[in-house]
Amino acid sequence: ALVVSAGSAAIHYAIQTLTRAGDNIVTTPQLYGGTYTLFAHLLPSFGVDVRFARDDSAEDIAELIDENTKLVYCESIGNPAGNIIDLQALADVAHARGVPLMVDNTVATPILCKPIQFGADIVVHSVTKYIGGHSDTVGGALITGSAEIAEKLRFMQNAIGSVMGPFDAYLGLRGLKTMHVRMERHCVSAMEIARRLERHAKVAKV
Tell me, what DSSP letter sits at residue 163? Predict the structure, then answer.
């Protein structure tokens, strides 16, 4: 794992590490706004084509992968739609073509989902959100089970220099200590709200 200055920086690091001009990445359509901006507007200016699938299915992703595809990308829980991705299916499709899978796990957090267990090669988190948990720090994290990818990411970080500042790192560590308690409360509260809405006469579907 390594930490950088922001979640968006973490995503950009990984893509810069794995792609060159003329390559492409394939992504599910539901993305955090900052990621969409990076994919739709910035990466093409660097010569990296971004192919957006019609939906989240592994079949649609598979149709877009070719010999120039260097990465398949998704969010474990889509932001802001809340759609849930079948990570194992996407990992199987990507790996069958020799392509790594990168998963933004910010919304789920490591408490609710561990994408590497489902075949992800790189996991990204915005530490700014649930990991930090107090709206007072900014940061990003990249996790991989591949020593080869880790070495490349560290080289890129050293070359570019977008590291997490010491005080942000301190606040991120503080947030980690209470994340499991906070996520448990988030889930309990969300379920209670869902059950109350389900019983409400004016709500058709939850």
Answer: B
